[in-house]
Amino acid sequence: MPAADGSAEEFRRRGHAVVVGASLAGLRAAETLREEGFAGTLTMIGDEPHEPYDRPPLSKQVLLGRTGAGDTLLPRRRALEARWLLGTAATGLDLAGRRVRLAGGEEVRYDRLLIATGTRARPWIKETEATLDGVLTLRTAGEAARLARRLDARPRRVLVIGAGFTGSEIASACRERGIDVTVAERGPAPLVGALGGVVGAVAAELHRAHGVDLRCGITVTALEGDQAGRLRCAHLSDGTVLEADVAVVALGAVRNTEWLAGSGLAAGPRGIACDAGCRAFDVHGIVTDDVFVAGDVARSPHPLFGYQFLSLEHWGNAVAQAEVAAHNMVSPGPERRPHLWLPAFWSAQFGVNIKSVGVPPMGRELAVVQGSLTERRFAAVYGHQGRVIAAVTFDHGRWLPFYGRLIESAAPFPPDFAQVDRAPGGPRPIPAEFPDPALPTHGPTVTLSGYAPSERRVTFVPARV
Amino acid sequence: MDLNRCEAYAQCAFQAPDVFAMHGEEALMYEPCPGDERREQVMRAAASCPVQAILVEWPGGPAVPEEAGTGARG
């Protein structure tokens, strides 16, 4: 019985909420639903067989062998009283009939739906090479377990393809375990898509100081196996043949939206477009009122960044957006809240804590405001159209909330505050050196795309999946 | 662990050194599901965190579904 046509109160009392995606965003949304008094039926659908678990430790503690890949379950905030359909992928959506189709053919009716299907690791482009024994990706607990087992077996050399955050953390774990590692990065430096070339150069020094064989401006043209189908070597674009037992493909993520093809939702390789209240758009650009989106798979306009649609593959965004989406699912119109989270992320690699707030790739210029790049301990702010748009710190995280407030208050760039231990006149802005957004990369963690009222243009076209 | 919140005050590493450890100056490594024998340590660590970045769930505490494993998840 459809219990909640239109009325939030009816839905709250005896509606059926279905959450597709049983990871961080799905779990936190479900908890928020219950917290806000949702007393109806709750169904959680997840394609992985595991209860919701935390992914950040997978590329750190788990690869170091300190934590089992199955031991990163997320703590629960409260009881859920949900029906769990785990190991069950959603394969289709019938918007008019309000039904989610499952892999087994079963259909689940909903009154309100939350989509939090997230992303998966982008696979190696050549399918036959991707199936070689020793070619891996890292996103799920299962993938982490496989990679950790490989590292336990002391491979002679690991090749990491792509020096984004995940690739860099994998390389860091290898070095900490004394395993030889080569990193092949298409761009001029690690992290260049997320943080630009200036900060990327610091990351490159970090790699090399820890014994990583870092090769930038290089692509892997082929992976070659032996007769038994085991990875033997990689061919690089400069003609080099590199022997490696293990190759980890760390070329960013693919959004899990294929199951929505033909559903009528505005879903594609860039994610599912939704409004600031997390309500999904349909293909006509009309907002739905019973389908909500949260986490890595969502892309929503942010007022602080010119109303651009941002896709944020960030842990904190998954939590914050899930809370807003769930609140709005059970609230009548005037009580709904916008998702106004300030983007933030962290990464630990080579013993350095890298943190960021705001949207660095929007920044054309950068100014180092604390510490120094050569010491690899600093805080830097990014500027866009005369205001502070983002900040990054290397082992300077305690000051990040201050820079967050600068971003939220549209503080001027270059910053005009007095600085301790600095020459008068303020920091000198330098170009942040982001790569041409039209060039394919391993994928920045933030994708700027789509419609902005003041500047209507597309700046990045990802390869077709 | 909400490592966006964490500001590396390292109180947790003092209170529960078997579970939390600084990795370099500022990065934190932790055991996501420590055993029950660490329970008291972990509760002290969570309580002492100045920015409240540690979320703890113990069996018998909030919401432990059917076959959920033992230990804290923090």
UniProtKB/TrEMBL annotation, chain A:
The name this protein goes by in its record: NADPH-dependent 2,4-dienoyl-CoA reductase/sulfur reductase-like enzyme
GO cellular component: cytoplasm
Domain of life: Bacteria
Keywords, alphabetical: FAD, Flavoprotein, Oxidoreductase
InterPro entries, per database record: FAD-oxidoreductase/Apoptosis, FAD/NAD-bd_sf, FAD/NAD-binding_dom, FAD/NAD-linked_Rdtase_dimer_sf, Reductase_C
UniProt-listed Pfam families: Pyr_redox_2, Reductase_C
Keyword Phosphoprotein: no
A GO term, aspect molecular function: oxidoreductase activity, acting on NAD(P)H
Domain Reductase C-terminal positions: 345-416
FAD/NAD(P)-binding domain mapped to chain residues: 17-322
Named cofactor requirement(s): FAD
